[in-house]
Amino acid sequence: MKNFLLIGLAIIVLIVATVIVKTDQSSYVSSSGGMVLGVGGSAPTNSPIQTTSINDVDLLTQDGNFTIFLEALKNEGLLETLSGPAKYTILAPQDSAFASLDEDTITYLLSDQDTLRKFLMHHIAQGAITDKDLASDSAVQMLDGSKVNTSAITKSRGIVTSNGVIYKINQVLIPTNLLPQKPQGS
Fold this sequence. Notes:
The protein contains 8 helices and 9 strands.
């Protein structure tokens, strides 16, 4: 009888270990306990919804890959708003995304308050927009009034926070009306 119990327990341990290994192949666990995809990764379609009990700003801060975006949010005075109870979806460009821009473009986007606010509002949507919502819509309405094509988002799995959803993106979304005007003939 003891042998049957030990064999049964061994089978259960093997099943649990297999599930853990399969989960670990597509993600890692952050220090906050929330599941976060690695840079540039894409989640398998059957992976569980990623959730954490911390808010949007705390998740971005703890991740460590959003220092430029967080600094822009801080300069615009949005950290408190995005830490509050209202639900927002944030398309958060990682620092590596800003590295692909030239220095003049970054300076232009971050130096003027009006431009900075429009730039940030182009990365934030009202409400918690989940992966399921993205699958059924072709565009997301952002706070600046524009729509962002969901193809810019779907390479990343949404992380559900206590006050919204964050999508880690590997590009900086710049509305064409915010790009500096080049002189004619250039």
